[in-house]
C-alpha cells in the first residue's frame, strides 16, 4: 500500500496582499519537462494553462482537441492535451487545456483528474493548503 504523503503549501500573497492557493508542479510531455505552478480552482472542471507552457514543452496547441470553456469571464476556445503531472510526489496523467485567449496570470488546476488524486484541505484562516 502506498504511503500517504501529506504536503502543506502556504498560500501565495500577491502585491495587493491577496492570498491564493497555488502549488508548484512539474509537467511532462514526451521528453520535455517544465517546472510551473497553478492555482487550485475547485470551481473549474478542467485544468487550463497559458500557452507559454505549451510552447516550452514543444506542444503545438492547435493539434489538441478543440473545446470551448465558459465561466464568469465569458467563453474561450482552447485545445485539450494529455500531459503527465507531478504534484507533491504523485505522478498522474491529466487533460490540460491550452488557450491563446486565456490571459490570466496563473494557470488553473481544475477538478478533473487532480481532485481524484488527493484529499484537499483549504485552510483559509491560516492561508495554507494541504494535499494528502
From TrEMBL:
It comes from the Bacteria. InterPro entries: Aspartic_peptidase_AS (IPR001969), Peptidase_A2_cat (IPR001995), Peptidase_aspartic_dom_sf (IPR021109). The keyword Transmembrane helix does not apply. Transmembrane segments: none annotated. PROSITE patterns: ASP_PROT_RETROV, ASP_PROTEASE. Residues 36-113 form the Peptidase A2 domain. Keywords: Hydrolase. GO terms for biological process: proteolysis. One of its GO terms (molecular function) is aspartic-type endopeptidase activity. CDD domains: retropepsin_like. This is Peptidase A2 domain-containing protein. The lineage of its organism: Bacteria, Candidatus Shapironibacteriota.
Amino acid at each position: 500500500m502506498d504511503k500517504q504523503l501529506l504536503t502543506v503549501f502556504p498560500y501565495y500573497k500577491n502585491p495587493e496582499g491577496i492570498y491564493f492557493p497555488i502549488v508548484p508542479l512539474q509537467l511532462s510531455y514526451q521528453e520535455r519537462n517544465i517546472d510551473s505552478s497553478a492555482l487550485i480552482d475547485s470551481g473549474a472542471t478542467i485544468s487550463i494553462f497559458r500557452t507559454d507552457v505549451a510552447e516550452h514543452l514543444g506542444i503545438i496547441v492547435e493539434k489538441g482537441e478543440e473545446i470551448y470553456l465558459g465561466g464568469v469571464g465569458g467563453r474561450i476556445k482552447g485545445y485539450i492535451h494529455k500531459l503527465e503531472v507531478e504534484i507533491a510526489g504523485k505522478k498522474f496523467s491529466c487533460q490540460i487545456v491550452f488557450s491563446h485567449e486565456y490571459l490570466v496570470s496563473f494557470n488553473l488546476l481544475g477538478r478533473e483528474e487532480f481532485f481524484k488524486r488527493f484529499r484537499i484541505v483549504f485552510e483559509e484562516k491560516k492561508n495554507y493548503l494541504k494535499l494528502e
